[in-house]
Amino acid sequence: MTLPIIFILFLGFLYIGSSAIDVKGHVSWNDVCRGYNQLGHSRVVLDNDKHSGGILKDGSFVIPNVPSGTYLLSVISHDYQFEQMRVDVKDSISFEEPVVEVRPYVLGTPMSPASTILLPYPIKLSARQRFNYFVPRESFNIMGMLKSPMILMMVFAGALVLGMPYLMNLWQNSRESRRRCHTHRVLFRVVISSLDSPHL
């Protein structure tokens, strides 16, 4: 009686143990990254380092004991950018190994629904571009300076300080000219009125 129970428990442990799998893949060298020496120490991770594996000198990698589920695969590298992929580890119906499905993933898109495009397994990765950490120093640009609000305020204040005496002089001259014009008008009216009046 106890022998069938032990056998069933043994099969249950085998099934639980078989629900985890080693996810395997390979990094293909290309013109962007020509080999392991250029790549340096890098790791392939699932879901932000929930599971991870190192990249060997031949470009292969293994992420051990990955349970069933949906993961986002990415490469952590200091100098190179790699594409991200969606990895689905599914339990098989029989007591065989779980099935691994690999699909492309575009950053910023939802994980569900999954893409209909299936990629080959073991996973193949390649570097897309090299990170450029060097930012060239900006050269002197007079137009760029004039676009700055602080420079515009300084130029306006300087023009106001330099132009204020000229404006004050212009304003005083206009007052004087208006006063003279008014005096001439009054004299003209007096002369006209004296000409129009009969002589006594």
TrEMBL record:
Q: Which branch of life, at top level?
A: Eukaryota
Q: Which InterPro entries match?
A: Beta_sandwich_EMC7, Carb-bd-like_fold, EMC7
Signal peptide region: 1-20
Residue span, ER membrane protein complex subunit 7 beta-sandwich domain: 41-153
Q: Give a GO cellular-component term.
A: EMC complex
Which UniProt keywords are given for this protein, alphabetically ordered? Carbohydrate metabolism, Membrane, Polysaccharide degradation, Signal, Transmembrane, Transmembrane helix
Q: What's an example GO BP annotation here?
A: polysaccharide catabolic process
Membrane topology term: Single-pass membrane protein
Which GO molecular function terms does the record list?
A: carbohydrate binding
Q: What is this protein called?
A: Secreted salivary protein
